[in-house]
């Protein structure tokens, strides 16, 4: 499995450390891992595991861009150089990685976005998008969104007004044993009670408030050390502030340390003074080392410390930080209690369990069946929105929609454009000349990237849970064809809807048996229609058996049904999932033309030819005639319904009899159907039986 992780760089942040830990744990022959860095920059560059391939867009060391850094160029470079190589693509950070992934042209991959922050309270990613709506659409296009905490998920919902359907909370995996081992690598000598702060020096971390609180305590006569381990944009200003407050002899700025764990382990208390946090890694690391924690009241700190169960939560202010520090300095009992809480918190870190969660999410690409809806239309614009509504509301989202317009009088670009936000993977293809229903479906097959295909007529619709039900069945049974209910609906009030095929239980059927059921030879308690509309076809199954629709004819479903069933694949039914086939007054099937006769002749000639070429005609000749009987009866019903006079009925019936001579062998046919049976079939439609 080929997996791509995308990150901005590898500077010394918590998310970057989590990424490296995860890459280290994915050292397995089943994974082929590539890390794409937008900038080849950061203190952790040399810590990338050896089994990980590295690509980058901008080389900081040389100061030269691989390509211009404009965002459009970033997207262009990504799609040109990454292409369709990967099975899983993961944007491990908000901002540019997520945007790149959202605009990826790789249709086959599972796309995962990772959210590490409470975006509602620290929404810094807006500068990478044209608007909040664009950023929202980028996340909506993902197959999965991973949140590092419930609070991060809630913040996302507050900001964007929705929660991705395929979302999951996986807390950052903390490698406890590794942290404990690294903490013992060297000793840090502290002569006084020591508060340690680990992380980037930035405004959102609220460290200036901590310096002011420390200044007040020192002024009151307290003695302690305050250590800052890390670098950042505020290093100079915080150093100046320490001098201004005259506490610089009590404050040390250690700078960035690749292994900060001895500093944490040898401190008395770790302080997280952050204004906002997604899931603070350093707080978890302190708990792993049984170091007491004082943390401000913000979402991430509350989550890790379980609202104070495993550490002290203080008001998110200078005053809150001051009182928290004062409490542990004043009371040995308070400090001892805090230490016990931290020790108890180590049981919550669950490294292996979280790694397994992540592996499970990644491995789901093997079991996710991306579907392709192939929608064909011909002058049915007024029904298209109903069709697209049923697609856009699907509870299962891993699908694409291909709309092929067979040269309608009026194009439907405007309708498709309105649905692009609801159906992210929708494309519209207007044909310059008509190629008929079979041709448009073949074109759709060639365009599709789904593992399973479902054919749509644009005036039809499906239940909103049909893909979810199909996925569950396909995931369990791995069929070549999965069949759902076929319901006939009408635009005529007097005609009541009914099921042409109805499946209330899961049934597994081999292709040959299904073929005999379709032709009426077997009756096993369910009906199988030759229609292509109520079925999910595995694309590889069609490709392997070279199965295509006959082009430029009506009844194109019939030879397709013969071939798909006689290829003898594995077939399974999907219970209680409905495809609604809408019959309109004036539709092709609701009319009578010479073409109906000609195309019926062409279709059954094709079927006969196929059976003979496959050398199976003798075996299935009975089934051939049974299916022909059904469609010939359909033709006779059309004559009865649409011929205006008795003379017209006779004329059309004689025409239909003429084509029989080209479709069937009369002597052969007579072995299966007596003259009386033929007369019985015809009697409802023609009153003057002397014709026969």
Structural features, described:
Helix 21 (557-566) packs parallel to helix 22. The chain is elongated. It has 26 helices and 24 strands. The protein is 41% helix and 18% strand. The protein has 692 residues and is α/β, with parallel strands linked by helices.
Index terms:
Rossmann fold; alpha/beta; 8-stranded mixed beta sheet; 41% helix; 24 strands; 26 helices; 692 residues; 10-stranded mixed beta sheet; Spore Coat Polysaccharide Biosynthesis Protein SpsA, Chain A
Radius of gyration: 34 Å
Assembly state: single chain
CATH topology of the largest domain: Spore Coat Polysaccharide Biosynthesis Protein SpsA, Chain A
Give the CATH H-level superfamily of the largest domain: Spore Coat Polysaccharide Biosynthesis Protein SpsA, Chain A
Beginning-to-end CA distance, first to last residue? 66 Å
CATH class of the largest domain: Alpha Beta
Quantity of strands, as a count: 24
Name the beta content range. Answer: 15-25%
Unreliable residue runs? 63-69, 684-692
Instruction: Give the total of domains.
Output: 4
Mean pLDDT across residues: 86
Shape: elongated
CATH architecture annotation name of the largest domain: Alpha-Beta Complex
* Helix content percent band: 40-55%
Summarize the biggest pleated sheet.
10 strands, mixed
The computed structural class is alpha/beta
Count of helical regions: 26
